[in-house]
């Protein structure tokens, strides 16, 4: 994506009623068993952190629908969706002592080319990639006021 398009999308996001969450991870510092299995890494990095940020909404009884870029084979998507539901149930009970209704959460996996919101998320990810890989925070500065949750994962 060229600089003009990246800035254009990020500036549009700034004008939306949206709060962004960002998880940045240095893959070189992640345990080898996670790094070598992208599905497990995705589960640990994305699902755990998303679920933690969504707990208040789920606990309040709101329906949560998550859209993911379709990067997994179909059999792995089912496994992933089950993991999402189990993680939500586990975290709600262990953190809040609240029972979980599977009707309140759903996941969808679609190609980013067909979903504008995923394209916007890819642009946000690109902004953070520029900051952490190239020291260029010009794009992050555009959206930093929209980032309500930020986590930098580094653990080995």
What can you see in these coordinates?
The protein has 156 residues and is of the alpha/beta class. It has one domain. Helices cover 55% and strands 16% of the residues. Strands 1-4 form a two-stranded parallel ribbon. Strands 2-3 form a two-stranded parallel ribbon. Helix 1 packs across helix 5 and helix 3 crosses helix 4. The radius of gyration is 16 Å and the shape is globular.
List keywords for this structure.
156 residues; 55% helix; two-stranded parallel ribbon; 16% strand; alpha/beta; 6 helices
Chain-wise SSE layout:
Layout (H helix, E strand, L loop, with lengths): L2 H12 L5 E6 L6 H4 L2 H22 L4 E6 L4 H23 L8 E6 L5 H19 L3 H6 L3 E7 L3
Parallel strand pairs: 1-4, 2-3
Helix pairs in contact: 1-5, 3-4
Largest sheet: 2 strands, parallel
Oligomerization status of the protein chains? single chain
Number of alpha- plus pi-helical segments: 6
Which word captures the global form?
Answer: globular
Q: Helical percent range? A: 55-70%
**Structural class by secondary-structure content:** alpha/beta
| Count of discrete domains | 1
What can be said about this structure in brief?
By secondary structure, the protein is an alpha/beta fold.
